[in-house]
Amino acid sequence: MYQRVGEPVPLETFPTVLSRAIERSGLSLEHLQRKLAAENIRVSLSTLSYWRRGRTRPERPESLRAVEVIEDVLKLPRGYLVSLLGPRKPRGRWVARGGAVRAHDVLWDNTLGLAPVLAELDEPAPGELSYLNVHDQHFLDHQGRDVRTRVRMLVRSEVDGLRSLVVLHRADESDRALPTLLASTGCAMGRVRSVPTSRFTVGEVLFDRALAAGQTAVFEYEVRWYGQVRATRYTRGSRRPLRDYLVEVNFHQSALPGWCFSYTQEGVDEAEVRRESLELGAFGGVHASAQGSEAAILGVHWGW
After folding, report:
1. Closest CA to 210 of 161, 243, 244
2. CB 299 within 8 A of CB 247
3. Interval 72-117: pLDDT, tens
């Protein structure tokens, strides 16, 4: 390969070098993850995928240790990838124009197999999308099992040309099937992928038009659940802050819980923080709302 006079010299960046080295090696991200695990370094597939695509960068000591192992696995000079990271960014969550953005493994205890699906569906990058209003209506059947959730969203694009977003819904271990996604109003359901290894259904919600920066889209879709045992909670994990969130849980009159409360968590491994007790209404429903929430997980917990 040669460089013509006057042509720009390609910029060597962390993601471009990492991606090229992975392609040259023929190794998968799953293989890299196993190599890291053998060194007692835990890095999710989604994180590795984001490093490769330049959506996030390794900064924590554990992440930098991972990069050193990756250099050895990919037969790169020791310290080469680390040197491409440059000065460390300010600590804390990545705050882009659309707000703080969390990794998927903050929200879920198992993301195995999720990263390649998200890469295929081209999930909006940090800073490209803001959630203005999210309304979840969750329904249980006469035996207290999850049946369906109606999701209504108002979102704003922070870039020109945004046409879709990606949603994830996860089955419980006892469910007889992964959830099904159905478009209702203001959108169409594009590509849908099942991830049995971590029990996710991942769907591409297509807006009714391409959005320019600052434009909004409002749409509604439905999730069908296949629960086999009584449920005890409904939760929403969000990578981005929710400016306005409302959750309703509707119980069947023949299966009313004994108590309910709303809660938040800073991550799947963090303690559940009780917000308030919820009084069951005459028609078998409870609701909770949050404005300007920075919590990673919001939900309703109940007992029979």
Report:
1. 161
2. yes
3. 999 988 888 888 876 544 333 333 444 557 888 888 888 888 888 8
Residue 79: Cβ within 10 Å count: 11
d(CA 208, CA 223): 20
Strands 273-277 and 259-265, bridge-based pairing = antiparallel
Residue 232 located in a structural domain:
yes
Say yes or no: 62 and 181 in one domain. no
- 127, 101 in Cβ contact below 8 A? yes
Q: Is residue 8 in some structural domain?
A: no
What is the Cα–Cα distance from 220 to 87, expressed in whole angstroms?
43
Q: Clarify whether residues 21 and 164 are in a common domain.
A: no
Each residue's pLDDT tens digit, 59-82? 777 788 899 999 999 998 888 888
Classify residue 82 as exposed, middle or buried by CB count within 10 Å of its CB (0-12, 13-18, 19+): middle
